[in-house]
Structure formats: C-alpha cells, structure tokens
Design brief:
The structure is a homotetramer of 293-residue chains. Helix content of chain A is 34%, strand content 13%. With 293 residues, the first copy, chain A, is an alpha/beta fold.
C-alpha cells in the first residue's frame, strides 16, 4: 500500500486547491431544494421545533411556520443530548411525522443524522441532511454524507476554527457532493450570559473564502429565545443567506431546547423584521407564493 | 476602621440595586455632547484614526470623516501598545491637534486616558474620555473617571464577561458620573481568522440589563478593514446605538492598526449602508445639519 | 410511545445518581488488562506511535517502548485527520500489525475506533478501545462502546467541560460497561504557544468526582515533544494514574504528529524521571517483570 | 518630533533582541531579596492572606506561614475587586501592618500596587512589588515599576498569551529594572469547574524563552483550596522556581478569596509534600535556617 508522506501541516493541498475554496470555483454555489434556491439572491428561513416530539406537536408547528413565512421545516428525529438520560428523539417514527408534515405544508424538511448506519434511512425521508455541530469532526459520517445525493446542512463545531470547519466540509465535497450549506451556530467562549457566542464575523469570512451558502442559527447560537430576533437580523445584515430558528407551539413544554425556542407569534414578527433588513441589503426573503408578500 | 464583611461573592449589592441596572433606572440614559444625543433615537458614528500621528494626518482625516457623516472624532494621543518599542502616541501634542481638529470641523472629540495622572490633562482637552479595553479592570482609573464631569466611552475588556463589565462600569457610576457609553469591541476566543471575536449578542443583553447607551467598535472587534462594513451593519441591526470605526487617510502608512483602518471612500459608503439598516430598524443616523441628508 | 418530560437542564438524574459518580461507587474502579491494573496503586505508561504507518515502524517502536518501560502499546489504525487529504491510517492492515506487535512484546494494545460500523472489527483485534477527543460527543459510538466487553480509553473533548465529559462517559456506563479510563489531553484556549492547553486541574477534579482511572496525554495536550517530559511529570505529581505518550522511532519521518512525538532515548529518560515523581507521591510505575527495575 | 514608522506587527525589535529573551542573556536571572535567592537552585514559597484585613489576622497568619516554611509573606493592602462595593483593602494602614509582620517574622514581604500614584508609597514599605493580573496591560504602571529599585512579582494576565506577557514584562525591563519574577496564575477558558485554568505548560515555555524566574499561584489559578496542593506539586514537577499560596488563619471569615485560601495545617502539610517533589526534580525548598529541615 502506498502511503502519503509528511505530517498534517504539510500534507493537505494548498488552500487554493481545496474544493470548498472560492479560487477553485468563482461562482456562488446555489442549492435547489424543491424549487427553493439556497445561496442565491433571496434569503431563506428554516424553522421548526428542535425535536420531533409527537405528531400533533410537529404538524401544528409546521402549519404555524409555513403560514408565517418559513421556506423549510426543521425537526430532529435523532437528538444528540449531553446526558444519556435526556429525551433522545423518536427515531424513524419522527422521520415519518416529518414526511407527513411535508405533505401537509409543502415545505421541504431538514433533519439531523448522527450515525453512519442511519444515513440511508434518513436520506430516504429527508430533503436536506443535517450534520450537527457535535458531529463536525465525525469524519466517517462526513464521508457518508459526501456519498449521498441530498444537500447537506453542515453546522460549524462549537470548538472549530473557520479553517478546520472548511477542511471538514472538504470531506463532504471530496466524496462528490458539493451541495453543502454552511451554518454558523455559536462557538464556545468564556462568556456565560449566552449559551454560546454567535460568531457573526464568520459570515463575511466564509462568503469570501468559499462559494458555499452560509446561514446562521441564532437559537443555538445564543440559547435564549429573547435574543433570537436581534441576532437573526444582525446575521442578515452581515450577509447571511438565511437563518434557521427553533419555533415551538408550546415552548414551555418542549422536551428539548425550550428556553431558546420562540413562540409562533414572535416568529411571524421576526419574518417581517428580517424582510426589512433583507431589503436594506438589497435582498428579500424567498417566497413560494408571491401573493403572500 | 470599619471593614465590610464577607467575600467577593456575597459582598456586592444585589444586581437590582446596581446603579448601572435598568431596574434602578427604567429610562434610557441619553448622553448629550455638544448637541449630539448618544443613546437616544438616532444612532451616532464615531470615526477617526487609531492614533494621532501628526497634525496633517489628523486634520485631513477629520475633514474626511466630518464630511462623510461622522458625528464624533476619535484619535489616540496616548496609545496602549503591546510592545514598549511600538509607537506610544504623541501625548499632549496629540491632544492639541485634537483641539484643532475640533475647531476645524465642529466635531466633538473622544480620546483615551490610560493613567490616573493624565486624567486632569486629558479632561481639559477632550469632550469624551475613553477608557480602553486593557484598562477595563484599572479600578483607580475608573474611579478618577467617575469623579470627572465628562462623559466616558468605556470599552469592554477583551477578557471580561458581561457581568464583570457592568460591575466595572459601576465603579464609574458609584463615584457620581452616570454619563457612561458602553462599547463592545471583541472578546478573545480560540478563533484566529479574526483579531478578536465581536460579541454582538452583548448588544441586546446590555440594552436589556442597563439603561446606558451601547455602541460597537468593529475595527478592533475584527482587526480587518474588509470585515468592518458587514459587522457595522450587523451591530446596528442588533440594536446598537452607534458605531466607532477607524478611518485613516492613508491606511498603509498608519503607525498603528493600519490593517483594520478603512479608506475614506469606504467610510462614505459605509455611512450610506448603515443609514439603510438604521431605517430598517426604525432609526436614522444623527445629523448635525439636516441639509446633509 | 412514552416520552420523558422536561428539557435538558431538568432531564437527567441528579449528579449523585450518575453511574460515573463517586457517590454511586465509593471505591476506585481498577481496570485489569492482561494482568496490568489501571487506576490502582501503580501508575501505568502507554506509549507508541500516533499512527501505525507500516509494519517495521510499529514493530521497531513497540520493541523500544517495551524495553523502555511502557506497559501498554498505542497506535492508530484509523486516524481522524483535519484534512481529507492527510494520511487516514492503514485500517484493518494496521490492526493486524498491532496484533503482531502484541505477540512480539507481550504488551496489550490500545487503538482508536471512529465509526460504529468498525466497532466489532476493532474489538476483535485490540485490548483497549480508544475513543478520541473528536468523538467525545459521538453518542452512537459511545453507546456501541458501552455494549462491548473491552475497556474503553475515553478522551476528553478539546472543548468539553468536566461536566459534559462525565455525562458523555455516562453514555458508556449506562450501556453496561464500567471499564472506562478517562484521559485529559488538552483543551482549546486562546493561547497559541501550545497546540492545546493541558488542563491538569482536571485530574484532581475527576479523581474527586468519579471512581474511574484518570490518565493524561501530554503529547496531544501540548503538541510539542520538548514539553512532554515536564507535563508528564506534572501530571503524575497532580495525581494522574498514568500517562500516554507518543513515541516514534524516527519522529522527523512520522506521517502524523511528528512534532509532538519523542525520540526513543527521551522516552527511556522520561520513564526514569516519572518513576522519581511517582515515588515522591507514594506510588511507582507498574512493572510486569520486577527484574526490569 | 520624529515618530517611528510601521505598524504594531513590524514595530518591535525581533524577539531575540528583547531584554526578556534568553538569547539576550543566557544565564538565569537570580533575584536576591534579604538573602533569599529566587530563580536559583532552590525553590521558594510565598504565602499569606489574600488581603491584609486587620493587624491580628496578618500577624497571626504571618507567624503560621513563617513557622510552616514560607520564605516570603504575601498580603494585599490595595485590592482590585470586581465590584466597587467589595472590600477594597486597608491602604497605607495595611502596608504598616506588613512592616510589622516583617519585623516579627523576618520574612520579606510582597504586596500589590495598582496605581502609578501609589508606587512611591508602596515601594517604601515593601520588599517586592506585585503587579496583579488585571494590571498586566497597565503600561504606565509597568513603566513606573521599571523605574523603581525593587524586584517586581509580575503576574500573567488572565487572557494574555505568553507572547503578550513577555512583551509586557519588557516594559519593566526596558526602564532599567531586570528584577522581574514571572507568575502563572491561571488563564480564562470555557471551563467552569475551576475559577481559571492553570496553564502549567507556560512554565517550561517561559523557562526556555526567558532568563527570568517563574513561579505559580495555584490559589488564584484554581479558585478552590482543595485543588491547591495537587497543583502546587504539579507546578514544581513542571519546573517552577516557587509557588505563591493564599493561607488564612480563618478561611471562612476571609474578606476576600476565602474559598481558595488554605488552612494553616494544610499549609504545613503542603510544604512537606512540595519538598518531596522538589527532591524528585533535584531541587529543595530554600531554608533560612537549615536547622528547620
């Protein structure tokens, strides 16, 4: 077997040769999902509950975010939880509810995969595969995502530099899948008044260094629902191609991430406020049905 | 001598009793400097060179930022530099040039003080006293700033939590000076693609917890001039009452912070872009002379 | 389906009920591997190359560390690499060389597993399963490790608090495997003169809060071979039950982690120096064959 | 006025030219204070209360640490406190008690100075001037310390890289005072189970890069008295020239830092344990009176 020479510092291609690099591909990558364009001129809104908890919760929340202006529905069937004794997600049952929600609302869905063995199953049900921040360095999982035919929403690890994040994305692209949506979701710092520190400067840096779409998750990035609107607006002002927010029809009863989930009414207001910022930077929120505007 | 009891955890007032706390004073503190209101409905722009390097540099840059839409002129006469062999500022000579620049443009000036022994001198020349991030925990200096009659632009330390920052501001207020402008300017994290990580979530947190004006310095917060426009817009979208940016008439020749100083033309464009964001959040940039708009 | 109530904060057992907690099991867990006791009175030395690169490199290094005083041989067959274009390990071929090295030296071996699908294969070849820092939050992998019958060397994530680390270990124990060796290997901080910051205070904290053995990896923890001896000694002085160090017979030619691998001669000296520190804290290095001492 | 050219990156001497650098001075700097050598073959123990609270507390604690084996007495007369409402120190009264304690025990004293205006007064009373971590970037204060004739115990800032720390020390040396004792006392990280993260790898790094003595403060570095012994031993094992610990005759009544102060009995045991580690690395604790050993 022939093995490459040199250590980690010397051993990868020069950054200009990386598939994620803008020098390798000048034009923005625009990802199409059921007619929606991610990374194009319009910005997109992904919304939904942290976890799929039961059929009613998902379908109710799906209807709310759909009529409120979301373009894509989020919801976790497999949940990475800090404690093994926390709710771990409904698994395939959750995936089935997501399918129902898609049928009901017409919204494409995004859901997380955590295990290489789940990849095939999750791919069958979802429109976009999510790889969460705790899995950013799960290289076998990245390779599997690279082999599948679905777009990948790939979150930055909470401990990852921008360099490491892009090299991890390279694992997906190097397997032949360039449909990767980057997502800033907060990094770990010494500050304790937020759950994480949302690193919005990563937006212009990623947009300059790569051709991939960049969105922001202010729900995980702050950990407090009352901070979500300000940071969502800031993200769009800084050049993000979209946001992903957690909305729950009854946040106080959420099995996961209740404190950072916003109320349905607040979501409706948030979309209106984001539209204003989008206009101020020469963009608008993507609309399936223009009559809604 | 009577000494208080208990350790640091127990020994300070409950947070609701702190002078900086919004519970202690519900209304926003609006600071007036030569007719400009900081922390009111309008947002303000502070601009100028990092350091006062010589008369020509300061006056030229002052004219540029004044005509470009700045409300207040910044410039350092005393510079805290990492190395003792770097340019340390012009001292009183620099303060005199700032006075000339004020006369020339009509803009009030803000400049940093680093030493309790300089306080009286700096106060004589400046409209706003700046206390820099490296001095955030210089308690004797904070007390002196609290005793003087000038507004204080008080920067967050790059290692300070929001809690520590507000307790440090309390040192100024507890001496009788409540004219304090808070300023987020980046915190230290593991990320290396920026000089610091601009913590924009601190804006809504500070606005909720205190009645003091909150501005943002995207120049120090990022360390790269090309990141300044995106982060300045994001700051206003997140609710900041103003921004402070470094502008140099010849950035490549700057004695300090050249890489993060923007060009005059970029400043003009930045003000226009900020105005759009300000409108999107129901505000506008303060204008001395309304005919300029 | 019955689902648990409450969010992540409320949803796990009280810390005293956790299987990792010393309140749940007062006596130290002592793990036996081919007659070696880990977490007992003696301290243990794990040494070997970062990656298994070829048969000669592994066998030569194995002989060196064995005669130098190592108790367990390390070597990676599957390597988590920041870039997809870096050497990724030899896979099963590497596992076979590890078997040969074990036969040659009599030392038990430890090697990393990264993918749930590899667990069965790796278990077949290795004496101790390693879960690396990048996989600390790979919950499906932790559950698989919990189901297997081999001891697990479980490294702390480079951005994980002690609390999160112990909750992640709980995933392994809650599946029925309490043979878990904890390993501090450096956390990510702002400091750039080391690769990571070795958090030695985690040793007494972990020893107090849990009954599990705690070892330290000063090679990854510092990233510089010349720092390894000082930090290895400090680890033992602070109460660690052992150390794991990277040794390469030709560090300059290493395919991975060359800069942090020590030379064979330095390893021999290191073991002697550690023995002195061990004696100063009332312990000694475990010896298979006492005639070696 | 002639001003230097270039920005902060270019403007300081090459590191080999820095006065702190070992290339500039190959031999270790050994600082003599009343016959004690700091940075020589023997290690030294600095102990005492965080703050001088009253005469009895200081004199009682001084007697305890003196008979327990301390070489130098510490105690703060001016205290940098996070909140303005916490105990701020006794000021000159505290300095007088320190003089009394020195007379009583024969131990030299070290105390902190926070304000350029206090420098002359503090110098008059103390044997070693301490500059605390919050003042590490107080450049005017560093320059004043550089002008005085007393040794300076100079603590690392809690968010300072080793590079920044050495450049700050350079401010003292460049004014003509090379009697500088470096002190690692914990850096700020995301970890919350300790007050700070004691960065022991800084010891070998500083010893390699500079000729100055390096000590460690495990009391501030951990924030918990029960962690002090383990980390003090680790510091000596890693090559530190001494340690500084907080001892209080009644920790539960301490006005400052009670939770990290150790009991008199624990101090006596700690000195014995440190002696063993010192011997294991070929050193010993400095003894005024050899009959004590």
């Amino acid at each position: 077997m022939e093995t490459p020479k040199g250590d980690s510092q010397k051993n990868y291609r020069s950054s200009g040769d990386l598939l994620t690099n803008r020098q390798a591909k000048k034009d923005d990558t625009v990802i199409k999902v059921k007619g929606i364009e991610i990374g194009g001129r319009d910005i997109i809104i992904i919304a939904g509950p942290c976890a799929v908890e039961n059929k009613e919760q998902l379908l109710e929340t799906a209807k709310i975010v759909s009529s409120g202006g979301a373009n894509i529905l989020r919801g976790g069937a497999y949940k990475p939880r800090t404690s093994p004794y926390s709710f771990q997600g409904l698994g395939e049952e959750g995936l089935k509810y997501l399918s129902e929600a898609r049928k009901l609302t017409g919204l494409p869905v995004v859901t997380e995969v955590m295990d290489t063995r789940q990849m095939e199953l999750v791919c069958k049900y979802t429109d976009i595969i999510q790889i969460g921040s705790r899995s950013m360095h799960n290289f076998p999982l990245l390779k599997e995502a690279g082999k599948c035919r679905k777009p990948v929403l790939f979150k930055r690890g909470l401990m990852a530099t921008v360099d490491e994040y892009l090299l991890a994305a390279e694992y997906i692209l190097s397997e032949g899948n360039d449909q990767v949506i980057l997502c800033e979701r907060g990094i770990r710092t010494f500050e304790t008044s937020t759950r994480h520190t949302l690193d919005l400067s990563a937006i212009p840096i990623l947009k300059r260094r790569t051709h991939l779409p960049v969105i922001v998750d202010p729900s995980h990035g702050t950990g407090h629902s009352w901070l979500v609107p300000a940071m969502a607006k800031a993200a769009i002002a800084a050049g993000a191609d979209g946001i992903m927010v957690e909305v729950h029809y009854k946040p106080l009863e959420a099995l996961s991430d209740g404190p950072q989930s916003i109320y349905p009414n607040d979501f409706v207001q948030l979309v209106k406020d984001i539209e204003k910022i989008a206009r101020a930077v020469g963009r608008k929120i993507y609309r399936h049905n223009l009559s809604l505007t």
